[in-house]
Specification:
The protein is α/β, with parallel strands linked by helices. Helices cover 37% and strands 25% of the residues. The protein has a 5-stranded mixed barrel with strand order 4-8-7-5-9, surrounded by 4 helices.
């Protein structure tokens, strides 16, 4: 996302990593929360959301609906957390959906589930999908709640890493709980113990790259092109 902004500067004095930069439509603040609702809540509390024209949560997600594949985008119509349902801003969502569709991006619209734990197994995913969610992630709920408390509109854009039928319990073992990226030491140790898992890890890495590329393209369009 930062590469899509001009004149990026690190924001000092905050409890979380944050930057500011210029886009076509004005100034953008990027705040990195890390993985999970606790970190997301802390990141949202670290900045004055009442000064924002729009609050957006973004990152990766797991697919719950069969059509979603790695690299697909999901624009949340609502965020379902354990304690509440948060609707996203309809006008902003319509503009973003039109922008992405016009540029040939594979984007889906539907409710997403914000889970306090990683849903990695097929059984866990099926249970979440039964409630109507099309994707699952771990940060949008607290950010949506903070935006609502500040009286600001909210949207959530996610890129899919794993499809509904994919079991990604391996990610919980070798992934970094803060960044979500693969941990080299944990990865090497796992491969030494389970040499046959190399192909699975390679597919996971490719899926992460596809998701990252999709988000970079989306934000490059959003930050630099007219949405009129």
């Amino acid at each position: 996302m930062l590469r899509a902004l001009r004149g990026v500067r690190r924001l000092r004095g905050l409890r979380v990593p944050a930057w500011r930069g210029a886009a076509r439509h004005g100034e953008v603040w990027v705040v990195r929360s890390g993985v999970g609702p606790r970190r997301a809540a802390a990141a949202a509390a670290a900045v004055d959301l009442s000064a924002c024209a729009l609050v957006a949560s973004t990152g990766c997600a797991g697919g719950l609906a069969p059509p979603l594949r790695p690299g697909d985008l999901v624009l949340a119509s609502a965020v379902h957390a354990d304690d509440a349902r948060h609707d996203t801003d309809q006008a902003a969502r319509a503009r973003l959906l039109a922008m992405a569709t016009a540029r040939g991006m594979t984007i889906h619209e539907g409710p997403i589930r914000c889970s306090a734990v990683l849903l990695a197994s097929r059984a866990d995913k099926r249970r979440a999908a039964a409630a109507g969610a099309v994707a699952v992630e771990m940060e949008a709920g607290p950010i949506a709640a903070a935006a609502a408390a500040a009286g600001r509109p909210f949207v959530s854009i996610r890129a899919i890493i794993d499809a509904a039928e994919d079991d990604v319990t391996l990610l919980a073992r070798v992934g970094d709980p803060v960044s979500g990226q693969l941990r080299p030491a944990a990865l090497a140790a796992h491969v030494l113990r389970h040499p046959g898992s190399v192909s699975e890890l390679w597919r996971l890495r490719q899926a992460q790259q596809a998701a990252g590329n999709a988000l970079r393209r989306f934000f490059a369009c959003w930050f630099h092109e007219s949405m009129a």
